[in-house]
Design brief:
Blueprint: E1 10-15, H1 20-30, E2 35-41, H2 45-55, E3 59-61, H3 64-68, E4 75-78, H4 85-94, E5 98-101, H5 109-120, E6 126-128, H6 138-147, E7 153-161, H7 178-181, H8 188-199, E8 202-210, E9 231-238, E10 243-249, E11 257-263, E12 267-270, E13 276-280, E14 285-289, H9 300-310, H10 318-337, E15 341-342
Parallel strand pairs: 1-2, 1-4, 2-3, 4-5, 5-6, 7-10
Antiparallel strand pairs: 7-11, 8-9, 8-15, 9-10, 11-12, 12-13, 13-14
Helix pairs in contact: 4-5, 5-10, 8-10
Length: 346
């Protein structure tokens, strides 16, 4: 490993140059001093060459193992689908590469545990991609919670409802395939990450699910069967005592997304991408616009690079990831058994 604390350039490779890699990671990494984007591996050699040409990268690799074998790369962004996260992360760590892994962390809790075990055996920097939802309001909300402004938290209500899966003629989406996505349903894991930070872990939960469209036009692999549900309802209880109710669905028209926190002194409603909250302390609901200097901002790429230079794990860590994977695993187990399920302590 180089002397990154001394300012040596960090050379980065991208595995999976689509989606969030194009929209966030690559553009943001380009803006960071002391960072050089070396090359990319994608699903096919041809698509890797196109990505390298599009973003002006030095190298295109025939496959991801070739990228990891390159001594000219210090760190990798694993932006492949969840079914590859464990294998790629473990292989990268074995080759001495720092790893930024796209969310969701793994296919299931057992997969996540193997990743964490490997992470804890090495001083290399690892980091998970954070959930962007509610990021803007998070510093303000956590301040209110810490100060007790809402009183004792009694109910947390989460609604993530949209029309992303409403069209029955839309081709099968890879996130509806269990072999690609594992146990990760809709926004369950993403929001569990937030719930854990704001309210602590959930102790137990029960889940119900529904699939409104069971078969879709074939995807690029010829698959048609919908394996993962398009609607999930969860009730649960936080270890600290508050009750949780959550609805996730991609099968409704005109849906809404919000997180409402009801306490003994006030109720607060937040929205995934807004810079304001609605506060009701008994005198009617009031909009509170959060000052720019108190807003949370996306800095995932900068945090990863800084963590490498400081010789520490990034934030969110794999330890935080395994906590939201425990939530997703409990949801899967409840669906499989039809029973109220205790979360595994991790």
């Amino acid at each position: 490993m180089g002397d990154f604390a001394g300012g040596e350039t960090i050379r980065i490779g991208i595995i999976g140059a689509g989606g969030i890699a194009r929209d966030r990671h690559i553009p943001n990494l380009r803006q960071l001093p002391g960072v050089r984007l070396v090359g990319a591996a994608n699903r096919t050699p041809e698509s890797a060459k196109r990505a390298a040409a599009e973003f002006g990268l030095e190298r295109a690799y025939d496959d991801w193992r070739q990228l990891l074998d390159d001594d000219g790369i210090d760190a990798v962004f694993v932006c492949a689908q969840p079914y590859m996260h464990r294998e790629m992360t473990l292989a990268a760590l074995e080759r001495g590469k720092h790893v930024f892994c796209q969310a969701r962390m793994a296919m299931d809790l057992a997969d996540a545990k193997r990743m964490l075990e490997a992470d804890e055996r090495t001083p290399l920097t690892t980091q998970l991609c954070p959930a962007p939802h509610y990021m803007a309001v998070e510093p303000y909300v956590r301040e209110l919670l810490a100060e007790g402004r809402l009183g004792d938290i009694r109910h947390v209500e989460l609604v993530h409802a949209n029309a992303s899966l409403l069209d029955p003629q839309a081709p099968l989406y890879w996130r509806q395939r269990a072999d690609k996505q594992g146990i990760n349903l809709l926004d369950v894991g993403i929001t569990a990450e937030i719930l854990n930070r704001w309210f602590g872990t959930v102790g137990r939960l029960s889940a119900l699910t529904r699939t409104w469209v069971n078969e879709r036009p074939a995807d690029e692999d010829g698959r048609t069967a919908v394996e993962l549900a398009d609607s999930v309802t969860i009730i649960g209880e936080f270890a600290a005592g508050a009750m949780l109710t959550a609805l996730y669905t991609g099968s409704v028209a005109g849906g809404s997304q919000r997180l409402t926190i009801s306490g003994s002194r006030a109720t607060l409603t937040c929205f995934p991408t807004e810079a304001f909250v609605l506060l009701n302390d008994g005198g009617g609901e009031k909009r509170v616009d959060i000052p720019a200097e108190r807003l949370g901002v996306w800095r995932a790429e900068a945090e990863f690079v800084q963590a490498i230079r400081e010789g520490r794990k990034g934030n969110p860590s794999l330890r935080e990831g395994i906590r939201y994977m425990a939530f997703s695993q409990a949801v899967a187990d409840s669906l499989a058994t039809g029973k109220l399920t205790e979360l595994e302590r991790v």
